[in-house]
Amino acid sequence: MKKFFKILMWSIVALLFAGTFVYLWINSRGEKTVYDTVRPTIGSLSRSTLLTGSIEPRDEIAIKPQISGIIAEIMVEAGDVVHEGDVVARIKVIPEEGQLSSAENRVKVALQNLDLIRSKHERTAALWEKKYVSREEFEESENSLRNAELEVEAAKDALSIVRDGVSASNAQQSNTLVRATITGLVLDVPVKVGSSVIQANTFNDGTTIASVADMNDLIFRGKVDETDVGSLSIGMPVEITIGALHDVTLGASIEYISPKAVNENGANTFEIKAAVAVPDSLTVRSGYSANASVVLNRADSVVTVPEGVLEFEGNDAYVYILSDSVAEQKFDRRKVTTGLSDGINVEVKQGVDTTMVIRGYELKKK
């Protein structure tokens, strides 16, 4: 019985020793590394940049009054279509006391002068009938009377303009009527009836009565980083997407690139403008946020590989070409010349072709 337990004990020890040896031998072999493989393909690559900005009318015109006063009537509201010359508002003039007093005095003086000249003319006319004065003297008297009458009319007209802002001789072209200077859509009317307005002068831009723009002539206005501005040029095509209009892509072309950078949050950006082609069936509103996609470089029908299979060393790039796959994967390191990259795939100009197999991503097996 004792002999049995002794044999059993030595058997267990032998098994433990053998198991430990096998375990250490297996682990000493390490892991076998196996690589995935890829083949170069023929494809097209492009590198593009995305610009953020907004859709705006090319020209937004601020309609301003020609005289100062108070808004008496507004004939339009935002969204209305107006034509050049249409009246958009009427202004009630609040005369300046000094100018009003001067204009009234001018009328009084003109009337007094007219009365005096009329009396002289009547006497001259009576003498002319009796042949006591010459024809020349009579005609001079008659001309003085006409001039005095014209001065009265001019004085009254000046008083009407100062007091009412309306010329008695040309009421249709009165400065109190604010007219549209272009044909377009009214974008904004920032004033209300009763608001005080002032005319533009050397010291003030004047009060805007309404903003009008031609919404058939739109542009994309955005910013481009200095790292990409060198790849842009006038006339390059642009694809515009508008956040408020889903599944809508508009064509455009760059027509302006600012020659001067603007520093924003430590980065230099350049303003660009692109003319947008909007179909008649689509309504685009001023100020829509938009993105512009610009293709900076493009390569068609070129050999491409995934960028992840490249190994970089300094300014050089290398790939590993499969040389033996029967017994064990073996790869040869080869230098390649790369071209355009879109961030996923890269163009290989020299070094590989589509018949080769390239080492890809590493797979480990125990």
Q: Would you give an account of this structure?
A:
This protein is an alpha+beta fold. The chain has four domains: 32-45 and 300-365, conserved putative lor/sdh protein from methanococcus maripaludis s2 fold (Beta Barrel), CATH 2.40.420; 50-57 and 215-298, Elongation Factor Tu (Ef-tu), domain 3 (Beta Barrel), CATH 2.40.30; 61-92 and 176-213, RNA polymerase II/Efflux pump adaptor protein, barrel-sandwich hybrid domain (OB fold (Dihydrolipoamide Acetyltransferase, E2P), Beta Barrel); 97-164, Orthogonal Bundle (Helix Hairpins), CATH 1.10.287. Helices cover 26% and strands 40% of the residues. The chain has helices at 2-28, 97-129, 135-164, 226-229, and strands spanning 32-38, 41-57, 60-63, 69-74, 81-82, 87-92, 177-179, 184-188, 196-197, 210-213, 218-225, 237-242, 249-257, 262-264, 267-276, 289-306, 311-313, 316-324, 330-341, 345-350, 358-365. The strands form four sheets. Strands 2-11-15-13-12-16 form a six-stranded antiparallel beta barrel. A four-stranded antiparallel sheet has the order 3-10-8-5, with no helix packed on it. Strands 7-6-4-9 form a four-stranded antiparallel sheet, with no helix packed on it. A hairpin with a 6-residue loop joins strand 12 (237-242) and strand 13 (249-257). The chain is rod-shaped, with a radius of gyration of 45 Å.
